[in-house]
Known about the structure:
By secondary structure, this protein is mostly helical. 87% of the residues lie in helices and 0% in strands. The chain is built from 16 helices and no strands. Helix 14 (337-352) runs parallel beside helix 16 (383-418). The two termini are 33 Å apart. The relative contact order is 0.12.
Amino acid sequence: MSAPDRRVQPKNVVYATLSAGSAGLLLIVVVLIKQVLGNDVFGAFSCALSLATIGEALMDFGIHQVTIRSIARDRESARRIFQNTLGLKAMPGVIMFVVLGAVAFVCWPDTDLRLTCLLMLVGAGLRSYLLTIRGVLLGLERFGDESLVVIGDRVVLLVAVGLALFSGAGLVGLGLAFVGARVLTVAGGFALTHRQVGLPQPAFEMDLWRELQVNALPMGAFLIVLNVYNYVDTILLGTMRDVGEAGRYSAAYKIYEGVTYAPAILASVLTPRLSHLWTVDRVAHARLVRQGLGVTTLLAIALGLVVWIGAPWGLVLAFGSDARASVSTLRILDGGLVFVFAIWLLHATAISVFEQRLLLTTTVIGVAANTALNLWLIPRFGREGSAWATVLGEALTLILLVGGLRGVLRKAADGARRA
């Protein structure tokens, strides 16, 4: 493998933008489900999808981020890390399926919802292997190939769901469509990655497994807590209220979540770049962090205004006239964009400076606060209470991250200047 060009390439930003922008295809999937099957089925599906998203983090357990960072530092390790990760993820995948499958049976008595949860958990396991493929490509800074994998996954998913809905499938049929789509995209991803790192055959080097697990443990715990933080609202609404209320909240949250893909573009490009700069030029690292925070803040303000003004029109256009009831929920969530945009950039920064424990600590505190606020506010205010819990939790997380990283970066910059 040739030596990488260590400058931030504009084409990488373009590819990352295409990958993040393809989330619009996921929004189309959600809109189709809501429009064709109605709010109650959409709410039930949102609960299953939220559980599966948490399950994906349980199976991956931070390996994706460690893969990016490790390969970005040593490209020659790509094949070895890729093949060992395939074997390493098998057991966590089984544990994830069993544990969260049991959670589904405890939370919801409906047979179709339970079965859909199990199917979505299978899909989450397959998507975790797709994350492995993406991690290798991002570590190698093959942003074009990674973009192809992401967009291909979402196009196939859209087609599969569209065919399922066209054929009259219900909730369980949606789960089957997700599993079928992910089988195809993982197979395609392995074929594409073969050009970079060889055959997708599992390897079992125990020393490397232990190294990966030790490095990934803080990050994995952080990501699990982060996913609980992002999706506990929907699960709690679906159990403490009903799936209809969960569906109305999800309509607002999906638009809010789509907007937050904007800072994900910067984070995906800057994570390998910041990881490299932390090794070779810490003054430049600090400068890039400041520039990134400035860009994300301006972007959050601009997009926040667009969302606030366009909330009624956007919700009705996407989810139908009954989604007008979710306008106030979306506007509450919109107030948290300035926090979550900065958090994305600070997450990339923390990963680059090996502060996974800070990420874990701040997110544990954030999810504890968010869950407590949900338990208090949902019985009183329903989905608006969940939205306020999300915003307040994000504000607290940002304060903790800034406080924790400030000292680390200042100390590094002082040491670099003295040197």
